[in-house]
Design goal:
The chain is built from four helices and no strands. The protein is mainly α.
């Protein structure tokens, strides 16, 4: 499931990049380049093109697959920090043995 969703996500990523790069900018006409005004730069937009519809659809699919992959990745495992804390709590602390070549410490006179 995750592998299939990751493959779909990668395909949508590449498709979204290509569709965005194929579109022309809003101010790409010659009049806007030489300081003139463009009627469509800030005014009403024309009919939506096929590329803009493809961009919208692929962006929606990209967001859905991103969100779904994040939820599936979080569901599968636990944190490293909580794993270490559980191991430390379950193992009792044992004192280290004294070094072999030193005598045990003696109590000082009172």
């Amino acid at each position: 499931m995750i592998i299939l969703l990751t493959a779909l996500h990668l395909f949508v990523c590449v498709f979204l990049i290509l569709v965005v790069l194929l579109q022309t900018g809003k101010g790409a006409d010659v009049a806007a380049a030489f300081g003139g005004t463009s009627q469509t730069a800030f005014g009403a937009r024309g009919a939506t093109t096929l590329l803009s519809k493809l961009t919208t659809g692929s962006a929606i699919i990209f967001m859905i697959t991103s969100f779904t992959l994040a939820l599936l990745a979080n569901k599968g495992g636990s944190s490293v920090v909580t794993d270490e804390a559980a191991q430390q709590q379950s193992a009792p602390a044992t004192p280290a043995p004294p070094p072999a070549n030193q005598p045990p410490p003696s109590n000082p006179p009172q």
